[in-house]
Amino acid sequence: MDKCNILFLPHNVKLTVTKGENLIRAAMRAGVHINASCGGEGVCGKCRIIIEDGNVGGGITEKLDKKDVEKGYRQACLSHALSDLVVRIPIESEVDAGVLNLQKTPRKTARIWEMNLEELKDKGLFMPPVEKKYLELPEPTSQDNLPDVTRLISFLKAKHDEHRLVVELPVIRKISDILRQGNFKVTATLARPVLSGRKTHIIHIQPGDTTDRNYAIAVDVGTTTVYAQLVDLISGNVLAQFGDYN
């Protein structure tokens, strides 16, 4: 299968694609932003690019006048790589027109403060929406014969000061097996309510101590694009990310 090498300027980002690949999707894979308010449908005309070297198929529409075409302008969403390419992304295709006036003094400035989340938690100023709690529960005896669900809730209250708890049905179904698999040493995952006054849900239970591994997916569903990140909730690092048109 034929391959084409694409160089995106002014970022100097290189990408190898299959011949015929759509250029706006190639740019997305390369991490190069190109405006496309219509979601890549060829309607808005905002994804203008300049082909400085190489051959592309398509990309010429009524949104481009004759002089633009002669200068190498194409619409990225309708263009396909036919050879190795040098593609320049003009500034108007990278940022919204409203922010192109760089001489204008911003109305507001903002500071980003580094926060110690553990310190905020100790002060009661921060409560993670999803958190893991490790428990070492006593095994049932003839004198201590609490149901497994009640045992879990009771020790979350006693050891971690967790109240107003609801156990999700999938957890109820597997709690007996998980408790015995982990010799009653388990990790419970809690999902706290967004609104005050609601209950905290126990959404998962695992054998052993897994509190050093806690991940979440953050998704931004926009008008034209969907963007997701896999986040390590322990370190705050973004482990993976991907976006595509809505």
Explain this structure.
This protein has helices at 23-30, 66-70, 117-122, 148-160, 169-181; strands spanning 3-9, 13-18, 48-53, 56-58, 73-75, 79-81, 85-88, 130-136, 165-167, 185-191, 200-207, 215-221, 225-232, 238-245. The protein is built from five helices and 14 strands. The strands form four sheets. The protein has a five-stranded mixed β-sheet with strand order 2-1-7-3-5. It has a four-stranded mixed β-sheet with strand order 8-10-11-9. A three-stranded antiparallel β-sheet has the order 12-13-14. It is an alpha+beta fold and 246 residues long. Residues 97-112 have low confidence and may be disordered.
Quick overview:
This protein is an alpha+beta fold. The protein has helices at 23-30, 66-70, 117-122, 148-160, 169-181, and strands spanning 3-9, 13-18, 48-53, 56-58, 73-75, 79-81, 85-88, 130-136, 165-167, 185-191, 200-207, 215-221, 225-232, 238-245. It folds into three domains: 3-96, Ubiquitin-like (UB roll) (Roll); 117-207, Ubiquitin-like (UB roll) (Roll), CATH 3.10.20.880; 215-245, no CATH class.
